[in-house]
Amino acid sequence: MKCGASVTDKLANSKPTITVSSYGIGQRQSEGSGTMTQLVFIHGPGAGGCSASFANQLKHFPGSIAPDLPGHLTGEPCPDVVRYTEWLRGWLWAQELQKDLVLVGFTLGACIALQYALDYPEEVKALALMTVSMAPKTRTPGSLEFRLQAAEDPNVHEKWLDSMRHSMMFINPDLREHLIDCHRKIGPISQYRDLVTIDKFDVRDRIDSLKASLLLIRGIDDPGAPPEYELEIHRAVPGSTYLKLDNAGHFPTSERPDDVNRAIEELIQSTK
After folding, report:
1. Contact at 8 Å (CB) between 76 and 4?
2. 169 near 222, Cβ under 8 Å?
3. pTM listed for this prediction
4. Domain span at residue 215?
């Protein structure tokens, strides 16, 4: 499926997909469209840059799914969050998953989930978002250029992989090295594009219209020490829940899986 294609085109050209990794399998629910809450995990540019980052969730939640976004292992990347959202919606509609969605994501995946819930409120029941801002982010000078240099210079490439390991310092070592292998395959240019896409995301003028139940999770020991963007969203969305976890940073789903899974279960229960 290409970015920007209509839902109709995607339904005509797509087949139901499952996400499979050495750590678990995510399958769509067999009951069909809208009959049960459907958990969808959406990755970002870190923690492997693909669906493998949700290994713990795919094992814990039977029937959950986690697509690999286009441009991450295969396909062409989308130019912005809106186009990624349309791609994801088409991917889900092709599998007859059109409502009662619970979208879970970090960084780019969180932006896509939030955009989806704002654009199609009748399809999304709840959101669990991590490491996300409702406004464009400000990055450390040179961080984008670092990814471009890593694509050209083998020595810088190894430094980039080391920085990925450092960002995943709270993840189980076996899973962390599996995710490093994913980064090797996907490469720093994909991450560069994702960061640029994230930095253009801005829904400040619409955030107060969010209808879905909202859980925000922040890892308080993030080695990158980003601003507390999640708190800004929490204050802007009445009734939202804000969970702070220690020994976690950018990727709470991989760093504190048991606590995050429990919080997702509670979120789902709260919507019944």
Report:
1. no
2. no
3. 0.90
4. 7-270
